[in-house]
Amino acid sequence: MRDDTALAQAHEAMAAWGGTGTPRLIRNRENAVFEIITPAGRAALRLHRQGYQTEAAIRSELWWMRALADRAQPVPHPLRTATGALTHCLQGGRIASALAWVEGAPLGAAGIPLSGTAQEQAAQHHALGRLLATVHSATDRLEPPQDFERPHWDLPGLLGESPLWGRFWEHPGLAPAEARLLVEARAFCAEATRDATARGADQGLVHADVLRENVLLTENGPVLIDFDDCGRGFRLYDLGTALSQNLSEPHLPAILAALVDGYASLRPLAPEDQALIPVMTLMRCLASVGWTMTRIPQESPLHRSYINRATRLSAQLLRGEGLVGKD
């Protein structure tokens, strides 16, 4: 959507929260996000992408975030409109929501090497692991409302005939050998997922998009933002998603160990759980190939970047190696 169109919609939406002044565009991708000023202070106004999540699903996302924030979890606090609603429907049908502002810097950005030393990166990911564990534990104590509606990041949602983000093995940019490799990887992940389900691996609500841009580093520790993709799935999918951006980092062994240790310090992981983390990482890489098909211009080099990442990790795991190669 054009920035000027989004800005006009932001002016319309912010009135529902009593906003004043001119909205400041922060990003205009899946959702258009603006900084606004409300009577409650600075806020992040989100104009949700039409056709992705239903209004009921957006309300469910905000219910979960609000329940977590009310329990002092490090997530943004959703703000209610002047009429007490968590969402506002614009004239064109687009849904808007607003979150209390979080002051912090992103952990990093996609495609840009992480800054800092190996020790600093490890410390950040240990804290991230603990954050995910606290969010999962707090969620276990919640009872979602009857009308709670979110997608399922399970075997059908990630690997079925109609995955949530598309049939990645049919990406038009795949060479025939690459397509065959992703089909084999899909079967490999499906078997591992069925085995994990059979043994009762931990499942529940997950953030499902723990990317660097969605982790803000604040003076009080990391904060998890952007729950737009949250849903039900394997809890370890959150760790796999976080690791998917780090596969080319020179300090990947330290990052992996710190993330797992941080999580396991609050939610212990059995050896078979830890063995599932590379599979969850691969599942995210495969899903991301499907994601590019409808969200990135056909001529963008990002298609090849996502394909290369997925094929490299597929070959690696199918050879019996771990995330850091032979280990």
TrEMBL record:
Residues 28-265 form the Aminoglycoside phosphotransferase domain. It comes from the Bacteria. Gene3D superfamilies: 3.90.1200.10. InterPro entries: Aminoglycoside_PTrfase (IPR002575), Kinase-like_dom_sf (IPR011009), Pseudomonas-type_ThrB (IPR050249). SUPFAM superfamilies: Protein kinase-like (PK-like). Pfam families: APH. Belongs to the pseudomonas-type ThrB family. This is Phosphotransferase enzyme family protein.
